[in-house]
Write a structure and sequence with these properties.
8-stranded mixed sheet, 2 helices, alpha+beta, 24% helix, 182 residues, globular
């Protein structure tokens, strides 16, 4: 008999195994391309939006330093729950791929960070104004099995989570990488 506790344990084991693989690959990419090799951000879009799917990876400690909720684009929602991804302008979709997190600025939602798409799947991020920012509609804690609000394609986190990662981004000599994957 499979209990609810066993299901959660199996989910967690699969999830952390997948995250560990992605983090190792992101670190390898950072080393090869002169990006920050202490911190990396991984976003697993295969997870429900009601679960923590934005993870701050401390490469030097080989650990998850923090995790939080993050939106996906309203254009990515499809019947049946499987997300659709696109790099097309005005699609309001999330774009998969690696991003270099750029300079901060004050945008429509307050503090925001420019994102430069590094892959063909997200190369139009700047043209689409896809940025990392916060919004009050994103809760502080997991709400699964409920979902959270949607964005127009930006990875949007809670205001407190953005404040938590702000010192990492502000003190980094090299751009920190953000990898959104499915």
């Amino acid at each position: 008999e499979i209990t609810e506790t066993n299901k959660r344990s199996e989910h967690k084991a699969r999830f952390y195994g997948r995250l560990r693989q992605r983090a190792a690959s992101l670190l390898q990419y950072a080393r090869a391309h002169q990006y920050n090799t202490h911190w990396g951000f991984c976003v697993d879009m295969a997870e429900s939006s009601g679960r923590n799917r934005f993870h701050v990876i401390d490469f030097s400690g080989d650990s998850v330093w923090a995790s939080g909720l993050v939106t996906h684009g309203s254009g990515s929602d499809r019947p049946g729950g499987r997300l659709y991804f696109s790099n097309q302008p005005n699609s309001h979709c999330t774009s998969l791929g690696r991003y270099a997190i750029g300079l901060s600025y004050q945008g429509d939602f307050g503090l925001a960070y420019k994102l430069k798409g590094l892959d063909s799947t997200n190369s139009k991020a700047m043209e689409r104004f896809v940025v990392l920012h916060a919004h009050d509609c994103v809760p502080e804690r997991e709400v699964y099995p409920s979902d959270i609000c949607l964005s127009f394609g930006c990875p949007t986190v809670s205001p407190a989570f953005l404040q938590k990662i702000k010192p990492i981004l502000a003190s980094s000599q090299q751009p920190v990488l953000l990898w959104i994957y499915d």
